[in-house]
Design goal:
Mean pLDDT: 94
Structural class: alpha+beta
CATH architecture of the largest domain: Sandwich
CATH topology of the largest domain: Jelly Rolls
Low-confidence stretches: 325-330
Number of helices: 10
Number of strands: 15
CATH class of the largest domain: Mainly Beta
Helix content: 25-40%
Strand content: 15-25%
Number of domains: 2
């Protein structure tokens, strides 16, 4: 049984490959240098019971290198070509591209790279795979039209595990810093409810030495943003998502928040595939581990728990999306 959903062999209608792309070559395009340290969720103020059902106790890493100079140049060119397909995410991200791995073979192969995946597993301290929903692979954010607008408002992600990579050279940018809040989601919500930004003494700015460098995030637990630029400039970042191969924990991917953001003809299929993958893993655990000597109620409860993600996906797919909890609306 496959542990991860493979990238679809058939692309959605309307998605065509970019022409004249180089082939992804890990020996040429990667220069992996693991991070020197990590910050834990407990350091942000999370309790152990809040961490127990999550994918990893890691919050975020120090910056680390993924791409070589050649790889960074290819990614920048690819991101510029994909800009033609940019959309927006409600009132949070003005310019972004999702589904780029259905359009760029090079981007797809980078996002699926086994070399990078192995390094991410070491950072998180748990086995991972590229996210089962390709919409979460190679997400690109671009600068807003108006100087002074946040590239991306304070938020926590719709998925658990990802990295944020600098595509533009961060050392040449006028502002547009990537910022991380040193606190919990509840802490950030308290500030947002009061109409306040996180205080500067509780914000850290990772020092990215150049393009192709990234920071690993426990995305849906760590509040972060792309700060405004001080003057007009090209600012591009790329986010790549992962799933924990241990499916016994909570599903931290908030697919219902993607309704109205992603192409519905793509989202519905990916959402159902992800829920099915979660269910298959949990049901297999029942097959492998359920002991003798239990009663009917216990057995029923184990089956019910195994299909909870499938049942939740069915309910969400059949109802209007709820308000997005991960947006800190109006707080830039």
């Amino acid at each position: 049984m496959s542990v991860a959903v493979p990238f679809p062999q058939v692309r959605p209608d309307g998605y065509e490959w970019l022409d004249d792309e180089p082939a992804f070559d890990p020996t040429l395009h990667l220069d992996i240098r693991p991070p020197t340290g990590v910050t834990m969720l407990t350091d942000l103020g999370y309790r152990l019971d809040e961490i127990a059902a999550t994918a990893t106790p890691v919050a975020f890493s120090t910056p680390f290198r993924i791409l070589s100079d050649d790889g960074a140049a290819v990614l920048l060119d690819t991101a510029r070509r994909l800009r033609a397909f940019q959309t927006n995410a409600r009132d949070r991200i003005e310019n972004m591209v999702r589904g780029g791995c259905y359009r760029s073979r090079w981007l797809r192969d980078l996002c699926l790279s086994s070399e990078v995946t192995e390094m991410m597993a070491e950072v998180y301290g748990t086995a991972v795979a590229p996210h089962t929903m390709p919409l979460h692979l190679g997400h690109l954010n671009y600068e807003p039209a108006s100087v002074g607008d946040a590239v991306d408002k304070w938020h926590h992600d719709t998925l658990a595990l990802d990295y944020v990579m600098m595509v533009s050279d961060p050392t040449t940018l006028p502002g547009g810093r990537f910022e991380v809040f040193l606190g919990t989601k509840d802490d950030a919500a308290t500030f947002a409810a009061a109409g306040k930004r996180p205080p500067t003494d509780r914000v850290v700015v990772p020092d990215f030495p150049g393009p192709g460098w990234a920071i690993a995030l426990h995305g849906n637990m760590v509040v972060h943003r792309g700060a405004p630029l001080d003057s007009a400039a090209e600012r591009i970042t790329m986010v790549n998502g992962y799933v924990s191969l241990d499916r016994s924990g909570d599903d931290q991917s908030r697919s219902r928040d993607l309704v109205g953001v992603d192409d519905p003809a793509v989202l519905a299929t990916e959402w159902a595939r992800h829920a099915a993958w979660r269910g298959v893993g949990r049901l297999q655990k029942v097959v492998d581990d359920l002991p003798f000597g239990i009663d009917n109620e216990w057995a029923a409860g184990q089956l019910e728990e195994a299909i909870t993600d499938v049942q939740q996906a069915i309910r969400d797919l059949r109802t209007d999306p709820s308000p997005t909890e991960h947006y800190e609306r109006g707080i830039e």
